[in-house]
Design brief:
This protein is an alpha/beta fold and about 325 residues long. The protein has seven helices and 20 strands. It has three domains: about 100 residues, Elongation Factor Tu (Ef-tu), domain 3; about 110 residues, Nucleotide-binding domain of ferredoxin-NADP reductase (FNR) module (Rossmann fold); about 90 residues, Ubiquitin-like (UB roll) (Roll), CATH 3.10.20. The longest helix is centred in the middle third of the chain and has 13 residues. The chain is globular. The two termini are about 25 Å apart.
Length: about 325
């Protein structure tokens, strides 16, 4: 699910900011070169993180009727790579470089039934899809999972808009979602669209495969910010260049390589396309595969790593966590 359209950069100006919760803010951004945001679109932007310009992606939640502005919702995460914290420091009037809306996650009309599954802030990628399906009078259901009710900031409006087609599951209110049961209720006529933490998406994908449903009917988007394990700092060694780099807990392996002038091909930067992969020569620790590109078997083998999102960690108190790559 890599980029399929040409990136056009422009200047974005912060028009308004609304604090939806203590950790989620809704940001409206004007476009200097306005372009339409189709359902499922996102924007990429450059944000300053400790003096370094880093690129981050956010789903377009809404767009003004004249296409002049787009709105995004940003979750300030505890294990942020730095981007979300920087986004929560922005003020009205601030300018930053943004792309025109990019469409990597299109909604395909014509299916007999649609299942939309969102975890946490991943709901932002599916809000427009749900609206479009309702307008088209399609058969659909929208499932929204959050750890706490405070995190489910769009729940009230979704319940009003979609009625019994909307289902909310709150973990700390003893209403967790059973992915296995949900997927088992579907059939080959269902198209499933999902966005959320890697744990949720991995479980959905495993359940989908176990039901032997058409894998092309499983569609997803991820922004690579979550993994199975807490991020830890580690060392990456490029032996043929005699180079050793430190990868901080708030940086990606790709960020560290690019900052050191190492050329790495990359596109989606979300763990979806596989273009940034590098061969693993050895690892002292374990790989936290945060991508959705490799199969379960490939992740277990550990011969390659998606540098844009995946990391190395140690479950022990190891004196050194090291990755050696080609």
């Amino acid at each position: 699910m890599a980029a399929t359209n040409l990136e056009i950069w422009q200047t974005g100006t912060i028009v308004s900011i609304e604090e939806l919760s203590p950790t989620i803010r809704y940001i409206e951004i004007s476009q200097s070169n306005p372009a339409k945001a189709d359902v499922g679109s996102h924007i990429d932007l450059m944000i300053d993180v400790n003096g370094v310009a880093v690129r981050r992606s956010y789903s377009v939640v809404t767009q003004s009727a004249d296409q002049a502005t787009v709105s995004i919702a940003v979750l300030k995460t505890r294990n942020s790579r730095g981007g979300s914290e920087a986004m929560h420091q922005l003020k009205v009037g601030d300018e930053l470089d943004i792309t025109q809306p990019i469409q990597n996650f299109p909604l395909r009309f014509g299916a007999q039934h649609y299942l939309l599954v969102a975890g946490g802030i991943g709901i932002t990628a599916l809000l427009g899809m749900a609206r479009a399906l309702k307008a088209a009078r399609a058969s659909y259901e929208l499932v929204y999972v959050a750890r706490t009710r405070k995190q489910a900031v769009f729940a009230a409006e979704l319940a009003t808009e979609h009625g019994d087609r909307f289902r909310l599951h709150i973990d700390d209110e003893d209403s967790p979602l059973s992915i296995g049961n949900l997927v088992a209720q579907q059939n080959d006529a269902t198209e499933l669209y999902m966005c959320g933490p890697i744990r949720l998406m991995d479980e959905v994908r495993r359940s989908w495969v176990s039901q032997e449903f058409d894998i092309t009917n499983l569609r997803y988007e991820t922004f690579g910010a979550s993994g199975w394990f807490e991020p830890q700092a580690f060392t990456v060694k490029i032996q043929d260049q005699n180079l050793s780099l430190e990868v901080g807990r708030n940086a990606t392996l790709l960020d560290a390589l690019e900052s050191a002038g190492v050329e790495v091909m990359a596109d989606c930067r979300k763990g979806e396309c596989g273009l940034c992969e590098l061969k693993v020569k050895s690892v002292q620790g374990e790989i936290d595969h945060r991508d959705v590109f490799y199969s379960e078997a490939q992740k277990i083998e550990g011969h390659k790593i998606a540098t844009c999102v995946s990391r190395v960690f140690s479950s022990q108190a190891a004196p050194e966590i090291t990755l050696s790559i080609d």
